[in-house]
Amino acid sequence: MFINRASLVLLMAVAATPAAAQDIWSWKKAVPAGRAIEIKGINGDVSATAASGSEVEVLARKSGDRSDPSSVRIDVVEHAGGVTICALYPNRTGERENECLPGARGRSSNHNNDVEVDFEVRVPRGVLFTGRTVNGSMRATGMTADVNASTVNGSVRVTTTGLAQASTVNGSITVKMGRANWNES
């Protein structure tokens, strides 16, 4: 096999380019029916499906090209209404601390950090699900309780036997509610 000098230089440059760094985080705990699991992200998709057991399971895959995935921490806040889990990016010096709080409270800014955090959530029967992200899609399928799913840049897809609230600014929304049979694609 013959490789010319230009091809060799290109091959060496591609081999020397680091692959995107990745970091994985997981959490599991029982959350009683009627309480909620809330996921708050900035960059990345949130996908929730029905769990077969009684525990909520959360897996977060962090990946980045320029920024270090380990710079983004995942906070878990247990409260009377359930559990809130947030992707929190590092603060700039002198700025107010990002914080994970339930509902509309809390503070989160990514400061041009390119780390994406993709959440996968398993939700037990009767546990309410709330998912929020800014740049990514929201998917909650097979839910058996109320769902609140929102994003700014991405699509939202919800199937639940409970009530559903869905919003997006730049994307589509598909919601199926009730006890009717439907086919998922």
Structure description:
The protein is globular. The C terminus is likely disordered. Strands 1-4-7-3-9-11-13 form a seven-stranded mixed beta sheet, with no helix packed on it. A hairpin with a 2-residue loop joins strand 5 and strand 6. The longest helix has 12 residues. The protein has 185 residues and is mainly β.
How would you concisely characterize the structure shown here?
The chain has 185 residues and is mainly β. 6% of the residues lie in helices and 44% in strands.
Largest sheet: 7 strands, mixed
Strand order of the largest sheet: 1-4-7-3-9-11-13
The coarse silhouette is: globular
Helix- and strand-based class?
mainly beta
Strand content: 35-45%
Average predicted local confidence, pLDDT? 86
Output the number of helix runs. 1
N to C succession of SSEs: HEEEEEEEEEEEEE
Rg, nearest Å: 19 Å
Number of strands: 13
Distance between the termini: 46 Å
